[in-house]
Specification:
It is a single chain. The chain is an alpha+beta fold. The protein has one domain. The chain is built from five helices and eight strands. β2 and β3 form a beta hairpin. The longest helix is centred in the C-terminal third of the chain and has 16 residues. The protein is globular, with a radius of gyration of 16 Å.
């Protein structure tokens, strides 16, 4: 697990809210505080969708697979965040796209317990003018093997670097 402080908040927020940087990630929960606090449960309500739509919006197996993609919920969150005043705070919890997780875990360095990983988490938190990103791993069973965490941490660092987002590790 690592914690990173985003150094260029405006650049990050443009990529996050207006770009497609996180579109494939699954959002499990969000909390946005402006004039009041909005809480969003990212779990899909499959009964809302028709049979054909349901096949395209939900997944199975991975933690967060039954949650909305950022692409689907982003316009609603953008409406809550944008405006003349900066939100007091927000928090988003994401799971890595299943295909990306499978690619990362299929690498030879993923360690013995790679099969116990059910999700790779990314937490975004803005409060007091500071924006941070924290990584984590969801597992079926406890493990002392940290190979998967290190792979995910390295991926997130590279993901942000490739997107041109400057950050620094928080001790």
């Amino acid at each position: 697990m690592i914690a990173l402080e985003i150094l260029e908040i405006k650049k990050f927020m443009n990529a996050f809210l207006l770009g497609d940087l996180f579109d494939r990630f699954r959002m499990t929960e969000a909390q946005i505080t402006t004039f009041c606090t909005f809480t969003i449960d990212g779990r899909l309500e499959k009964a809302f969708f028709g049979e054909e739509e349901e096949k395209t919006v939900g997944g199975a197996g991975q933690a967060g697979a039954d949650c909305v993609t950022w692409e689907l919920i982003k316009p609603r969150c953008l409406d809550l965040i944008r405006g003349k005043k900066t939100p007091l705070s927000f928090r988003f919890v994401f799971f890595c796209p299943e295909e990306t997780m499978e690619e990362l875990l299929s690498a030879g360095s993923a360690g013995e317990d790679a099969g116990s990983v059910t999700g790779m988490c990314l937490n975004l938190r803005f409060s007091g003018g500071t924006l941070s990103v924290t990584t984590g791993i969801a597992r079926r069973l406890f493990s002392t093997d940290r190979a998967q965490e290190m792979i995910w941490d390295d991926y997130v660092r590279e993901f942000l670097k490739t997107a041109g987002i400057a950050c620094r590790e928080i001790a």
